[in-house]
Amino acid sequence: MNQDAQDMDFSFVLASSVHDMKNSLGMLLNTLSDVMAHYPPQNDAHAKSYAVLEYEAARINSELIQLLSLYRMEKDQIRVHIDECVVGDMLSEQIARNHGLLQTRMIALTLECDEFLVGYFDSDLVGGVINNILVNCARYSKNKLKISAQKTDEGVCITIEDDGPGYPDDMLNASTFAETRISFANGRPHLGLMFANKIALMHKNKSHQGFIRLSNDSVLGGGCFKLFLP
Fold first, then answer.
1. How far is C-alpha 185 from the geometric centre of its chain's CA atoms?
2. Residue pLDDT, tens place only, 53-111
């Protein structure tokens, strides 16, 4: 077997393993949710332990989904299915998906979006991006999150703001997230932002293309993530 075939087989094995792990973690999260419902925390220490368990499981599950999606993108197995979507409905779905996590971490989330705002995008892929950012924000926020969406000259802009410490300089400086600027050497590959950037770039409308933008200009005093969809 030549080297190319070995690499291809190994990447397939890795992708299959990631898929199995993702399914197992999904079952673990559901079981954890049931346990917390039947055995609610009795004190702050219990609540903190539940919050850590739920966050870490959700974070790993999210990263496995991103890894699998990136593999499929590399193999040209993912297609963007553009459709007219009600932005508020998509955002509400992702908020509901993370309700338990936000609740156990005592984070108050507000949503500002016109109920009639529509956009043209792949709701599954974009929903995955929003979910990942919410999971990450649940870790770094103190107790507040804000999601908003509006129509701009550059398309629909979805903004997620927190009251945490803000994005570090290396993430702000790599805001274009070209693959050549993603470093695995320091143990911080910013996988979620690479995934978000790839999904944004897959959305095109004539000469316009989607993109993401990071800053520390949050109205809540922390980080600010923006996703633009043409």
1. 23
2. 877 787 787 778 777 777 777 776 677 889 999 999 999 999 998 887 888 788 999 99
**What is the distance between the alpha carbons of residues 138 and 34, in angstroms, rounded to a whole number?**
20
* Residue of 177, 168, 170, 227 whose CA lies nearest to 203: 227
Question: How many CB atoms are located within 10 Å of the residue 136 CB?
Answer: 21
The CATH number of 83-229 is 3.30.565.10
Sequence spans of domains, the chain: 3-74, 83-229
DSSP SS3 for 2: coil
The Cα 79–Cα 213 span in angstroms is 23
Strand-strand pairing, 108-113 and 144-152:
parallel
DSSP-assigned letters across all residues of 37-64: HHS--SSHHHHHHHHHHHHHHHHHHHHH
- What's the pTM value of the predicted model, to 2 decimals? 0.76
Q: Tell me the residue type at 72.
A: R
